[in-house]
Known about the structure:
Layout: E1 8-11, E2 14-18, E3 29-32, H1 35-43, H2 50-67, H3 73-88, H4 95-113, H5 125-157, E4 164-168, H6 183-192, E5 197-202, H7 209-220, E6 225-228, H8 233-238, E7 244-247, E8 251-253, E9 258-261, H9 264-273, E10 278-281, E11 287-288, H10 305-308, E12 309-310, E13 313-314, E14 327-330, E15 337-340, E16 343-345, H11 349-352
Amino acid sequence: MEQEIRTIVWQNGAVVMIDQRALPLEERYITCTDYRQVITAINDLTIRGAPAIGVAAAMGIALGALSCEASTRETFRAAFEEICGQFAATRPTARNLFWAIERMRGFCNAALNSVPDSPASSDCDSCRGVRELIVAEAVRIGKEDIAINRRLGRHGAELIPDGARILTHCNAGALATAGYGTALGVIRAAREAGKKLHVYVDETRPVLQGARLTAWELMREGIPCTLIADNMAGFLMQRRKVDLVIVGADRIAANGDAANKIGTYALAVLARAHGIPFYIAAPLSTIDPSLPGGGEIPIEERNPEEVTHMAGVRTAPEGIVVWNPAFDVTPHDFITAIITEAGVIRPPFREGLPR
Length: 355
């Protein structure tokens, strides 16, 4: 088996991440030494996937803290808050982004409050110590993400029968996290448990995360897989070639409604029509208890060129109007279960998610 994929790491005072835009043709890495470079990487999909975005934000905030020249606790706090605000403006749907920002903000405030203020200087001792603590917290978030995904995978693997034929959508693998993956983490765990399985990979228009990323991960590890166009899924189910569907999520509301890559809702409808279990795999940090239902989940709309162009080549007429939502919302009634690191949650989700 190939060496495990590490999507993003803290290395020698910088953030190193795999450039997902280059896959599957080239495996290359970029090194971010300034927090603004991490913001750009999140915006242009160099790094993507809700858990990975959360880890990137935490490490990017740590980079910003290292470069902050504040001389007192209050000026440091203000600068830190400004950096957090810039990260919050990147990807509106991904709950893990805001979870990570909230955790880093809370950690920073607690660390600042625990040390005495110092006289004004170019780099006061108290702020220097807080910077080091913030970096350690960001690294901890990355390590925790991998451990969480492994626990999630073990819980989900129990739902995968031996010989299962699994359909997945977009990429919820190691590349969407710090490592191991959520939906693909379940598949990996089932494989590690000795189960035979086959994965059908939706190409996932318009950015082809399934074709470019999920297929690359599965083939890298020797997991049997077949690539299909998104509009083939219904016929595949009709031919009785799918035993279950498993996908990730970018945000889950209090009632279990789940936002995921555009096209997920259509798969859930098809799965119900064919009597096929439909599973969501996501860490607890993806759950947003402040939103009662999916109607309140903010949906990001992306550049129209993702639809009008393919690999930089125009495929649609000049001037055509484009609607390009990056995500859709699957109602909780269509979800068989939500797999988390704490266990498998079944309906009613409004009761199970808080528990």
